[in-house]
Design goal:
globular, 6-stranded antiparallel sheet, 477 residues, single chain
Length: 477
C-alpha cells in the first residue's frame, strides 16, 4: 500500500538510515541469511528473529498475499498501542496528538461529551487545541450526533476532519485534526485512530479521574455521582438490537437508574426509580441494581428476579420501595417479555412512527414483600422501538399547575422519532426536548431507556461486511 497524499511522507527513511547507514552491507547480509539483526529491540524479549528465514514459514498471511512489511497505518496505530500501555492517563491526549503530528496532521483536538450531552469538553495538554463546544450547531457536534465522519474544507484548501470516538457503539467524544488533503486511505486511517483513541480513554478511565473531570461541566451532587458510577454504557448497538438511556437531571439525579446486558441472544433490561430523593434514594437504587445484577447473572427468570429484588429491598429498607420495569428481549424472535412493577406503561413506537401504549397488568413495586409478579409479552416487528420511562417524565407540574402528562409525551415522541435518527440521538434529543417542554423543571428524576429490535441475527454472525462496521475506503487494498 502506498502512503496517501494527505499524510506526511516523512515516514521512516531518516530513522532507518540513521540506524543502518554505518554498516549497511553487513546488516543487509544478516537479513538476507536470516540471522538476528541487532536493533532497538535487543533489550526486549521479543526483539530477535528466533529462526533462520529459510527455515521459517510465512507466519501471518492471507489469501490475497498482502505484504507483511509495516505500513504507515500499522506503524502509527501500533506505536500508539505500544506506547500507551504504560502511559499515564494525563498524557493520552498529548500522545495521540504527537503521533498524528508525526504523520502530517495539525491542530489536533480531542473532546469528550459532558454528562448532560449538551457540550463537548476538550482534553488539554501539549499538542492539543480546542475549547468547550456545544453539541448542537457545531462542526464537532455534527460528527458526534451523526456518529459519522465530517469534513470541513478550509479556506487554504486543507481539510479539517471531525471523527466520532466510539467505544464499540458508546459515544465517547470527537477527535479532530487537519490534513493538507484527504483521500480514502486517510479516511480509513483517521477512523481507526479515532476508535483507538476512544478505547484508550475508556481503558485508562478505570484508574483515573482525568477524563471524568474533563466531562464534568457543572457541579455534581453526591447522589448523582453514585448513580453514574453504577451505570452501564449509555449506548449499545449491534446488528440485531440497539439501546440508549439517559438520566435527568444528570448532575443531581437521585433514585433513578437503569441497567442492561446482552447475553447470548437475550437482551436483559431494567429501569428503576427508588422512593425519595437525594442520597438515600441513590443508596436504595444502588442496592436494587445490585440485586438485579446478582439475580440476572445467576440466570434467574423474570419472576425470580422480581422476587429477589423484592426480598432484598424489603429486608434492607422495611417500609420503603422502588418502582421498576424489568424485561427480556429475545433478539432471534423479537418477543419482549417484562414485569411492570409500578411504572408508567412503556410506549411502542412502530417503524411507521405510530405510538401506542404497551398496556400490562401492574405488579406492586419491589420492597413491599410477597407480591406475585405478572409477566407480559409482546411480539415486536423489525424496526420497532420501545420507550421505558420513569414517572418524573410525565408527572412534573407546569406553570398552570397541571401535570406534563402522557399526551404531551406521546406528541413529543412522535415528533422526535419521525426522522428515524439513531437510537442514541433520539434519546438525547427527546430528553432535552422534554426538559424544555417542562420549563426546565426537574423536581423529580426523569429517565429514559429506548430499545430497538432490528431483526433476527444473520445466519453467519461473523461474516464480513456488517453495515456500519467498516471504515471508509478500500479495506481490501
Amino acid at each position: 500500500m502506498t502512503a496517501s497524499k494527505g499524510w506526511s511522507r516523512k515516514l521512516s527513511y531518516r530513522r532507518s538510515a540513521g540506524r543502518l547507514g554505518r554498516r549497511p552491507v553487513t546488516l543487509l547480509w544478516l537479513v538476507l541469511v536470516g540471522e538476528r539483526v541487532p536493533d532497538d529491540g535487543d533489550n526486549h524479549p521479543h526483539g530477535a528473529l528466533r529462526a533462520p528465514l529459510s527455515d521459517a514459514g510465512l507466519g501471518f498471511a492471507d489469501a490475497q498475499g498482502r505484504s507483511r512489511v509495516e505500513s504507515l497505518g500499522e506503524r502509527v496505530l501500533g506505536s500508539l498501542l505500544d506506547r500507551a500501555h504504560l502511559m499515564p492517563a494525563r498524557l493520552v491526549g498529548p500522545l495521540v496528538a504527537q503521533e498524528i503530528a508525526e504523520i502530517g496532521g495539525t491542530d489536533v483536538s480531542i473532546w469528550v461529551q459532558d454528562y448532560d450531552q449538551r457540550t463537548l469538553q476538550p482534553l488539554t495538554g501539549r499538542g492539543l487545541v480546542g475549547e468547550s463546544t456545544p453539541i448542537d450547531d457545531s462542526w464537532p457536534g455534527r460528527a458526534f450526533t451523526a456518529d459519522a465522519r465530517i469534513e470541513q474544507q478550509l479556506p487554504d484548501g486543507s481539510v479539517r476532519m471531525y471523527l466520532p470516538m466510539l467505544d464499540g457503539s458508546d459515544r465517547v467524544g470527537v477527535l479532530a485534526f487537519t490534513l493538507p488533503t484527504v483521500d480514502d486511505n486517510d479516511r480509513r486511517l483517521a477512523q481507526r485512530l479515532a476508535g483507538l483513541t476512544a478505547d484508550l480513554i475508556v481503558t485508562k478511565s478505570l484508574y483515573t479521574d482525568t477524563f471524568a473531570q474533563a466531562r464534568t461541566a457543572a457541579p455534581m451532587s453526591l447522589s448523582a455521582h453514585m448513580q453514574w458510577q453504577t451505570l452501564p454504557p449509555l449506548v449499545m448497538t449491534t446488528p440485531d438490537v440497539a439501546l440508549a438511556g439517559i438520566l435527568e437531571p444528570c448532575y443531581d439525579v437521585g433514585g433513578d437508574s437503569f441497567d442492561y446486558a446482552l447475553n447470548e441472544h437475550v437482551l436483559h433490561l431494567a429501569v428503576f426509580d427508588a422512593m425519595g430523593h437525594g442520597l438515600e434514594a441513590a443508596t436504595m437504587a444502588t442496592i436494587v441494581l445490585a440485586a438485579y445484577r446478582h439475580g440476572r447473572r445467576a440466570n434467574a427468570s423474570l419472576p425470580d428476579l422480581y422476587v429477589h429484588m423484592d426480598d432484598v429491598l424489603s429486608a434492607t429498607y422495611p417500609g420503603r420501595f422502588a418502582t421498576a420495569q424489568v424485561g427480556q428481549l429475545d433478539t432471534v424472535t423479537g418477543v419482549l417479555s417484562w414485569v411492570n412493577a409500578g411504572h408508567p406503561a412503556a410506549l411502542l413506537i412502530g417503524g411507521s412512527g405510530i405510538v401506542s401504549e404497551l398496556a400490562a397488568p401492574v405488579t406492586r413495586p419491589v420492597g413491599f414483600g410477597g407480591a406475585v409478579p405478572v409477566v407480559t409479552a409482546v411480539q415486536l416487528a423489525p424496526g420497532d422501538r420501545v420507550l421505558f420511562f420513569t414517572d418524573g417524565v410525565v408527572e412534573e407540574r407546569l406553570d398552570d399547575g397541571l401535570q406534563f402528562g402522557e399526551a404531551r409525551l406521546w406528541e413529543l415522541v412522535q415528533q422526535t422519532t419521525a426522522d428515524r435518527l439513531s437510537v442514541a440521538e433520539t434519546v438525547r434529543l427527546l430528553s432535552h426536548t422534554l426538559m424544555r417542554a417542562r420549563g426546565g423543571r426537574t423536581s423529580d428524576d426523569a429517565s429514559l431507556l429506548l430499545v430497538e429490535w432490528r431483526g433476527p441475527p444473520r445466519d453467519d454472525e461473523l461474516a464480513r461486511g456488517i453495515l456500519g462496521g467498516l471504515p471508509a475506503g478500500d479495506i481490501e487494498g
